Amino acid sequence: MSTQQRRSRTPHVLVVDDEYFNYEMLSMALSDAFKFSYAESGLSCLSNAIADPPDVILLDVCMPGLDGYDTCRMLKNTPETKDIPVMMVSGLESEQEKQAGYEAGCDEYVVKPFAMQSLLEKIKNMV
Asked: Which of 94, 117, 123, 124 has the highest CB neighbour number within 10 Å of its CB?
């Protein structure tokens, strides 16, 4: 897809979170700027990202089963998804947690709670 085609359409954001409420909150707050889809787990994230590649993935860190770090490593080591920007979103704010996110391959690490306007700008910068 050309850069011009990307600019003329609404960017697609895949939200990966075991709490559906977080997806609803993001999609309601930012639906004017982005098209949203949802995955409830790391495994469904990978299949969704291959089937319908998003422009950016918002990835929760703390999920049962495959956590955000492992999901990010999987995304970055899969040819079809390795170039999709990943923004990790977490309530874990220590430098060690952030470092683990970047080591797993994320492009951005955002700590909850966050300001919607700030998140909007970060997503726009990644798209």
From this structure: 123
